[in-house]
Amino acid sequence: MTSHTKRYSLLSARMPKGNMNQWQERHTLAVRAPAGPEGPIVGLLDAWCQYANHHAARYDSGIGADYVLGPGWVQIGLGIRTLLNGESGRLDCGILDGFILDTLKAEGYDENGDRL
Questions:
Q1: Do 24 and 11 meet the contact criterion of CB atoms below 8 Å apart?
Q2: Which residues have a Cβ under 8 Å from the Cβ of 20 and sit 6 or more positions away?
Q3: In Å, what is the CA distance from 28 to each residue of 9, 35, 56, 100?
C-alpha cells in the first residue's frame, strides 16, 4: 500500500452508543447482506469508497486532492446522500449520512461539497 493509507469502508461507519431494539445488528446485516432496496444503496456507497481507495493506491494521494476527479467524486457522494431519503430497508440512513459526511470531510470537503 502507498503512503496514503486512509481506506474507506462502509463497515467502518461510526455507530452511536445504545442499541435499542437491536437496530445495529439489523443495519450491519443489511450492509453485509443487503436485500431489496438495501442492495443499490450499499452498492453505490461501496463503489464510491472503492473509487477513492483505488485513487489513493494508484496516485498516492486522496481523491479530494485531485482537482479534476475530486469534485465529481464529491457530487456522487452528495447524490447518494440525497438517495438516503428514499426507501432503505434495514439500513440506518443516519449512520450512512454521517459516514458520507465524515468521508467528505476526510477528503477536504464540507457537507455542501465546498472545499474546507
A1: no
A2: none
A3: 13, 12, 26, 16
Q: Is the pTM of this model over 0.85?
A: yes
Phi, psi of 112 (to 5 degrees): -100, 0
Residue range 57-68, pLDDT digits in tens: 999 999 999 999
CB atoms within 10 A of CB 32: 10
CA atoms within 13 A on the CB side of 47: 10
Residues with Cβ within 8 Å of residue 75, at least 6 apart in sequence: 113
Contacts with 84 (C-beta within 8 Å, 6 or more apart), sequence order? 41, 93, 96, 97
The whole-angstrom separation of Cα 116 and Cα 112 is 10
